[in-house]
User: What shape does this take?
Amino acid sequence: MRIPVIIDCDPGHDDAIALLLAFASDRLEVKAVTVVAGNQTLPKTLNNALRVLSFAGVECEVAAGAAAPLVRPLVTAPQVHGESGLDGPALPEPAFGPSGRPAWEAIIDIVRNSPQKVTLIPVGPLTNIALALLTAPDIKDNLERITLMGGAARGGNWTPAAEFNILVDPEAARVVFESGVPITMVGLDVTHEAQLYPEENEVLRAGGRVGRMVAELVDFYARFHPRFGFKGSPMHDPLAVAAVIDPTLVRTRALRVDIETQGLHTTGQTVVDFFGVTERPPNADVALEVDRERFIRMLIEAIKSYG
Ligand code: BDR
Ligand code: CA
Assistant: This one.
């Protein structure tokens, strides 16, 4: 039986690749794609989600969500993803539009009515997920898990302490981490190890029209990462999808994670209690190791399958 999932995203180069991985998988049944502001403003991330799915020939409900974080002004990432949020390949305009309902309503409705428990895969700021949980706490009972890309046990990529998705909406992240729903945190500890190397991008480029488009996405996205001393480009969001398709790709540890919302230097930090000093029960399975080779093999096969 396929795992019913909803992907909540802010495309975004790695978000786009995550969507393609999810739709190629015969383990997943993508019930909806919900979109949030993050890497770029909402009109841009929404248009990008629709353009990528249209280009790949995928039809699915796409629902527009929050245009801004719960309480803060929006921070975007044009340095990484460009002015469009998806700079690089020349993608045609979308072949279809968003559904008429807001993202959180789509999430609530789909989760409430699913005969099987649903897994949420948020790979952007957690605003839509928090809004769904706050509006309809009953959905927690029909959620299998939230496997999210965000946070880090060590270090940050937007500030020294914070990863981008958590930094953009830390209040929403707090709602999610305190929800009681089982969480897998796929953070920088593993996504920085899950790099696609330049020679692997050439394999994608040779793999059909979708492969070529993905390679062009990576060409643009790769410009940002030499400053971190990386050889390749971290496949942050695809790794969260992959961890649902095959949880053995990452090794996790059950730990207490709290979200800093008021730090002078640390707002948006995922504070991970490795030594149990808070004496509070774990609330997340934190991914600490990844099998990069196997993950990249899965990703390349998935993209190639589009032809
Ligand atoms: C996360 O931030 C975004 O720029 C990426 O799409 C990813 O979700 C990595 O910190
Ligand atoms: Ca993202």
The two ends are 25 Å apart (CA to CA).
